[in-house]
Design brief:
With about 260 residues, the protein is mainly alpha-helical. A hairpin with a 2-residue loop joins strand 1 (about 95-105) and strand 2. The protein has helices at about 15-75, 80-90, 130-235, and strands at about 95-105, 105-115. A two-stranded antiparallel ribbon has the order 1-2. The model has no long low-confidence stretch (mean pLDDT about 80).
Length: about 260
Amino acid sequence: MSDSSRINIFPSRMAQTLMQVRLKSAKKGHSLLKKKADALQMRFRKILKQIVEVRTEVMTAALPDALFALAQANFAAGAEFGALVRENITTARVKVRSDTDNIAGVKLPTFEPTVGNADANELTGLGKGGGAIQDCKKQWEQTVKVLIHLASLQTSFRTLDEVIKSTKRRVNAIEHVIIPKIERTLDYIKTELDENEREEFFRLKKIQAKKKKMRDEKAAIKEAKGIADAAERAGELDGTGKESHLVDSKDPDVLF
């Protein structure tokens, strides 16, 4: 009957060696996964701290300054300069380059902004409000860079969160399921092997006792047979197996 609390395996020396190797491998894997989880947790907390700092920067400085610069440009150049800017745009000047960062075997996606040299709206605002428009452009360019950095951190944060949960599940499974199951299997194998050794020892003792008894019986029969043969050769026994009266009796002397 199979037992789910241990591995269903035939108890033998080879099985015991195999389970010992598996137990050693499981403990080593548990140690490595534990170290990996600790390294990921350290990076996770670091990224979380950076996200809080960048969000604070976006909400308190970058975005308000950019919106204020846009309001100044609208006031200085007029609200119609926005349509003129959109008409002159053909390709994106700020682009995002994706890369990966390896942390304890986990590849985290990262995003970096790249700004092109060509500016289609370089001459916008020559008539009026040129300075305000240039300040607005710089502020929003800086804000976009900060937002891209924030997106990179949040993507890495979510990826690390999933990997840490998966790693913790694996660590708990090895610690609370696999290792105890292998240890119970080893205990079962050891118990069965000890029981087999006791049975074998008892069987050998019975065999030795039986052989000794047979040897003693053969020796007794041989000794009895030797005594009987010696007695017959000496004439101490008659044909009935009783002591003969003719052996010791002597005929009286006859005088002539």
